[in-house]
Automatic annotation (TrEMBL):
Domain Beta-lactamase-related: 21-332
Broad class of enzyme this protein falls into: hydrolase
E.C. code: 3.1.1.103
Keywords: Hydrolase
Record-annotated DUF7586 domain positions: 353-436
GO molecular function, one term: hydrolase activity
Record's protein name: Serine hydrolase domain-containing protein
Entry keyword Hydrolase: yes
Length: 459
């Protein structure tokens, strides 16, 4: 039960229900379940069905297809954080004889390994995994279709290899590692490798008639890390909360932030990108992180907005027709647009650091003017005064320098350069010199300053 301050407004709830009802009808899905999470709690859920019996709810299982890949990526990042692998490791360091051993773990996570999109025929999603008992059966005779690292090319076999990597390093099955390291710590008890009641059956809907045929629900075998899982709207929203904030029992906030960072060139046909097991979608108003999924009989979508602190899930049991990923994104936008996040109150810093305070204010890189602000935790924020130019936030290091967090200055070092008397001469940011005045006389500016100084150019 949510408190009044956490409940959605009646108009927002009506809009969510209308979108779900419209999606189920226009998408001709036998059923559709959806839910929205805001500020750490599920604030709305709903379901529609055209079948006999009750409508599905947030505890009803659907198959989630490629959203499984995000779970596999979390397991790989855990291995990295424990020092058992490095993301730059070539696969052959841990698994030999695949024919794809030169691909790195990082490239496999971000779909830039150059591997093919699918396993050889017959279509792996509608046939039992027992038909592909070995990795060679998944990869085929020519696994590499593109040079590694050159382009984004979505690869289901790539995530099969990552699942085998997890098993090789952990010494347990992918499913056991998943249960023990993610599902149990996060309380995701309704996420399983096979269906557990209550669940829905998968259907294909005839494109030109309102009739259906049952779809097979195969065990994918070695391909399981690419698309095996069944889950619920409620469980997936728990997972979204973890992906937004991290959980030290599973993966730190820094590591889930790394998952959200684009890892490969933009996907074909647009500016959207892919991180480490997460899709990154830029709309006109926000950036969404998450994943879409499908297997015969099912479509699924999970998206969250870090800035809005809203996540949404949509699940349907139809092979095609209903774009669950789009529906989930629209549900998120309905809440975020109708009820914008209330910002936290502004609060003064708990104490003033006179030395850092003296660094704030106007600085110049050549003739470009910037402001430097002090933020919480001894952080700094550098912004161009005119609104155009390069800026970034910086976090402190123990050695008295700062590390850039954004865009051009990501990972770059900001340091204070002092004169012999201890006064500040300039700021050095990746070899760029920032001074209090444009090309300040007496400061250690690369190239020096014309002794004639600033002057006019008379006719």
């Amino acid at each position: 039960m949510t408190s009044p301050s956490e409940e959605l407004l009646p108009g927002t709830r009506r809009s969510l229900l209308h979108r779900v009802a419209t999606a189920q009808r226009e998408g001709r899905a036998p059923s559709l379940a959806a839910a929205v999470r805001r500020e750490g709690r599920i604030v709305w859920s709903g379901g529609r069905t055209g079948l006999e019996g009750p409508a599905p709810d947030a505890d009803t299982q659907y198959r989630i297809g490629s959203i499984t890949k995000t779970f596999t990526a979390v397991l790989v990042l855990r291995l990295r954080d424990e020092g058992l692998i490095d993301l730059d490791d070539q696969l052959e360091k841990h698994i030999s004889g695949t024919g794809a051993g030169s691909a790195t773990v990082f490239q496999l996570l971000g779909h830039s390994s150059g591997l093919g999109a699918e396993a050889p025929a017959p279509w792996w999603e509608r046939t039992p995994g027992s038909l592909r008992p070995e990795l060679a059966d998944v990869l085929g005779e020519q696994p590499q279709m593109h040079p590694a690292g050159r382009r984004f090319h979505y690869s289901n076999p790539g995530y099969t290899l990552l699942g085998s990597l997890i098993e090789a390093v952990r010494g347990v099955s992918w499913e056991e590692a998943l249960r023990r390291e993610i599902l149990e710590p996060l309380g995701m008890h309704r996420t399983t490798a096979g269906p557990v009641a209550p669940y829905v059956e998968g259907w294909a809907v005839h494109p030109w008639a309102d009739v259906v045929v049952s779809e097979p629900a195969e065990d994918l075998g070695l391909m399981a890390p690419a698309g095996q899982l069944w889950s619920t709207a409620a469980d997936l929203l728990r997972f979204a909360g973890f992906l937004a904030e991290g959980d030290d029992r599973v993966l730190s906030a820094a590591s889930v932030r790394e998952m959200r960072t684009p890892a490969s060139p933009a996907a074909e046909g647009g500016g959207n990108s892919y991180g480490l097991g997460l899709q990154v979608v830029k709309t006109d108003s926000r950036v969404l992180f998450g994943h879409a999924g499908s297997l015969p009989g099912f479509v699924a979508g999970l998206w969250f907005s870090e800035d809005d602190d809203v996540a949404a899930v949509a699940l349907a049991n139809a092979t095609s027709g209903l774009p669950a990923g789009t529906v989930a994104a629209e549900l998120l936008s309905i809440v975020a647009d109708a009820e914008p996040r209330i910002p936290e109150p502004w609060r003064p810093l708990p104490e003033a650091d006179e030395e850092l305070l003296a660094l704030t204010g106007i600085w110049h890189w050549g003739t470009h003017t910037f402001t430097l602000r002090l933020t919480g935790g001894r952080g700094l924020e550098l912004r161009p005064l005119g609104g155009t130019g390069r800026g970034a936030s910086f976090v402190p290091r123990p050695d008295g320098t700062w590390t850039g967090l954004h865009d051009y200055y990501t990972g770059e070092t900001l340091r204070v350069v002092r004169r012999d008397d201890g006064s500040v001469d300039h700021l050095d940011l990746g070899s760029f010199t920032f001074t209090r005045e444009p090309y300040e006389a007496g400061a250690d500016v690369p190239g020096g300053l014309d002794p004639a100084g600033w002057r006019g150019l008379g006719g």
